[in-house]
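Hi F.,

I've been meaning to write this up properly since the lab meeting, where we talked about keeping a consistent format for the predictions we share between groups. The idea is simple: the sequence comes first, exactly as it goes in, then the structure tokens exactly as they come out, then a line or two of notes. No screenshots and no reformatting. I'm using this chain as the first example so we have something concrete to point to.
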Amino acid sequence: MKLRLVGQRNQLGGGTHFGELCDALKKIAFYSSLIEELDCFDKPAMEAAAAASGAQDVTIWFWNSEWITRFQGNHVVWGIFESDRLPRTYCDYLRAHGKRVWVPSHWGRDVLVNNGIASSLIDVVPEGVNGDRYHPHLRRAVNRTGQPFRFLSVGKFEKRKGYEELLEGFRQSFANTNEVELLLKADYFIDFETKKAALTALVDSLGLKNVRLFWGQWSAEQLLALYNYADAFVFASRAEGWGLPALEAAATGLPLVSTYYSGHTEFLRHCERSLIKIAHRLEPIKDPDFAKYWPSADGNLGQWAQPSTTSIAAGLTLMRQNHELYRAEAQANSLRLIEKFSWSQSAHCALECLSAHGLLQTGYAIHAT
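Output, unedited:
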């Protein structure tokens, strides 16, 4: 038997999920010898693995691929999405190929069921955070004497992340005061220069001089330093499959100002005392970038959250005014989050799901004397 994982390691959320779960599974004694990690863009490796696959194998697919029809055995398909309405072709793919369908949150499970996927096929396998890389232990060592209060947001510059609303809410509360800054790490790795110019122009159009923009591929150490440089994390996202930056921020001990809808509610519900929720309403998705990757035959892309700029402004003000209270709660929450949502826990959950459904045929036997 082989336990194959098909994806690609990269710095995006999906690539981090794939790489971290692969590493966590390989650390579990005995199973490490069964695991085969495959880069889905390595054609020779995919061809060789498909030819060698057998009926007892399990292949876990981290995104949709035509290769799935060439592998024998049982398939586990990850479902990670940001809308409450899924394209028919996507649901057909899950039903046709998924022996099991995994989602990282109970919100995701409900979306699948509401889109016609049988609940008996679905397992919730939460993603995680690397507590060795993102942790609270350096936060107290940072000297904040005389520095401005710093809000931080991390995530791709796209409509889904709510940057326009965030910047307007920040403008309403702290426009050009020297005492407060907003830090944005908002790369977009497709058409980077266009997105960079658009975000820079947006900040300039609002006349904000106390917004700082950060760019480029950063190491985990650099990101940890950025999280420690900030005092609070703000996440105005309309929808998330998981919301890794918010969990990383919380793991470093940052209190949060965030929307409370979609996949990131899975871990935000454990941060209630260090979280200020951004009010929202649900609205139809109208976004060309989203439609490009999730096309709909009838044009209905589903709904996501519309964050309130007034609520963002109020939340930022409240966080600054009561920061010591929220900071203390966030510090306590961080270690609990690292334990509950470790990649090790995710790996054990994945193996438990496979075992519960009879998909782990290890052939391992104990002979007592």
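Notes:
The chain has two domains: 3-128+343-356, 139-340.
The two ends are 28 Å apart (CA to CA).

If this format works for you, I'll send the rest the same way.

G.
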